[in-house]
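Example 278.
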Amino acid sequence: MTLQTTSTLPTRDLTERIATEVHADKAALLSGDHAGAIRELLERRGVLVFPQIGFTDAEQIAFTETLGTLAPERDGEAVYDVTLDTNVNKQADYLKGSFYWHLDGTMNQVPILASLLSSRVLPADGGGDTEFCNTYAAYDDLSEDDKDQIASLRAMHSAWNSLLYYDPEPDFATLRQMMAIGERELPVVWTHRSGRKSLILGCTASNIVGMDYAQSTKTLVRLRDWATQPQFVYRHRWSVGDLVMWDNTGTMHRALPYDPNSGRMLRRTKLAGEEPFA
Ligand code: SIN
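Predicted structure in complex with succinic acid:
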């Protein structure tokens, strides 16, 4: 294995266009000495993997705080249980949307900067990998014609649209509850302060504003299909103790299917957003 060195940390790119493995021990990560290099690498590579680092909750929180401002969950907790077990996570139903490509925070003007996910329990029978795609790279590789065509497009995003992916015939009460969360109009192309551009797509996108429904669906599906081609995708096969973090502003992600009764448990912390959609 050939390792490169970023700052003082040895790293290895996992694919050409997305994801880098970082080799460091807990003390080095928790010291904060490498925070700048990690942030720079995250923006450049989209996904960082810290294999079997084995953080406790307190260590994961401390590491997150070396990188920026920790964003608490809705109930104020610092750490969120990513599990389909409703005995552990009362809002586990919302996680059903995580099986479809998405980015987090499309209901907010400033979406979270990054998520950090660590694995605690994995399905004994396999499944439950997590996939990521690099939406900066996907934008960059579009033809100039495509870039021109989508430059000024805007799409409506909502939680109720992702509901329809996993529950295509919801009862009316459930639909109304999801609709109460609201919806938001966002650009299809996000022009970042850095000047780089990424795509805002995924299962929260219902339609392109002002476009005929069939044409709008074709456009959204074609772009999602483009952005999730193998050259833009990294698939993480979890080992217990891995920590994976991703730049939520330049990637989409999804969980691959697993047995809901498998006990799969990942723990998530989030970094507060620093840049509004634009
Ligand atoms: C998520 O969408 O944040 C969860 C991903 C996973 O469960 O693998």
